[in-house]
Amino acid sequence: VVSTQSTGNYFIQTNLRMKLLTHNMLKSHCKGVVNGFPLKITSNQVDVKEIEFNPDFISRMLSRLDWTVFVQSANLLGVGEGLPDMLPEDQDFDDEDVLKKIHHALLEVEVIEGELECPETGRKFPISKGIPDLRLNEDEK
Amino acid sequence: MKPTPLTPHLRSTAYSSVYPPAEDTFLLLDVLEEHVTSHVTSPLICLEIGSGSGAVTTFIKSLYPGAFCLAVDINPVASRATRETARLNAQDIDVVCSDLGSGLEMLYGKVDLLVFNPPYVVTESTEVSNGGIEASWAGGIDGREVIDRFLPRARKFLAPSGVFYLVGVQENRPEEICTSVPGLIGCIVATRKAGREKLWVIKFTRNKQESNSS
User: Fold this and answer.
1) Which of A15, A64, A134 is closest, CB to CB, to B83?
2) For residue A139, what pLDDT is reported?
């Protein structure tokens, strides 16, 4: 795990990563794929970076997430502990303990190097320096 | 007035294929800053297509610290430059390397603030590129080829109350662009002369009269 400390003007490459929140928005668009979501994450380099907890942001974001995919991916990366299997129906969900666990898994755990695999074709999209590369080759479009 | 993001790293040859902030960038930043209190009050999800140097998304994050800001570029070098610009300006944004947001269809109907400063320069069709520095400015016939390819997707990305800002030049025929997308209403919100370019910014919103279909 790469250090999250910065030392003066020389920053270790700690700001280059893909959050699980971002992963929740990505799908495969290879030709012929019917449902390219979700992409399966494999990673050998994950980092944790502290992000300011904003309960309002988390609450607002919950309705825009695919919750099942988020929990699955969090478990895959070993950070799913404490996440409920399903979101409560209650619109005013504000259990702060749980919101903090969601905040951590959603925003603070980040993939630096890894791959995202299309669920239908097995095509792997690389994640390098935290940036997923979803470009297709000409013959895949 | 918010400061323009610093981009000293762009001087490095490693980033020679990245379009540095220029007059078109600054016009867009000015419009965004002006609109922040009136037109776009608290977006949750912000998406920039063709982020280039990353100055715009970094600036957007500074305007809306409580938002999730995602930047997309087809050029992997620009993607890294975007990330670096955010880091140097102490802003936390996410970056994806993709062609006009392909692969981000899960965001359809969810983007509150969408921004695109496209390759708008009038060139031969053959110059429109899939990467490299040409991708940042070569717009093909009427400078419209990339703009026209993205416009239908813009409509899909926008949340019901979402707002989309597009930049271009007079040769792109902005009045025509304003009404060319079914489901979107556009109006020119700013113009500026920069050298030989007559720049404009169009603001689009979703047509409220359409039915609830994506």
Assistant:
1) A15
2) 85
Phi-psi region of B66 (alpha: psi -120 to 50; beta: other; left: phi over 0): alpha
C-alpha A28/C-alpha A22 separation (Å) is: 14
CA separation for the pair B11, B18 (Å, rounded): 10
The C-alpha of B9 sits at a distance from chain A's nearest C-alpha, in angstroms, of 13
Quick one: closest CA in B to A25, which residue?
Answer: B106
Whole-number average pLDDT of chain B: 93
Is there a contact between B94 and A15 if contact means CB atoms under 8 Å apart?
no
3-class DSSP state for residue B83? helix
- Model pLDDT for residues B104-156, shown as the tens digit of each residue: 999 999 999 999 999 999 999 988 987 778 888 999 999 999 999 999 999 99
Give the mean pLDDT of chain A. 83
CB contact under 8 Å between A64 and B79, yes or no, is: no
Dmax (CA) of chain A: 50
Q: Per-residue pLDDT tens for B59-77?
A: 999 999 999 999 999 999 9
Instruction: Give me A85's structure tokens.
Output: 């299997």
CB contact B99 to A (< 8 Å): yes
Contact A132, B97 (CB under 8 A): yes
Residue A59 main-chain phi, psi, to 5 deg: -60, -45
| Residue of chain A whose Cα is closest to the Cα of B90 | A15
- Nearest CA distance, B71 vs chain A (angstrom): 10
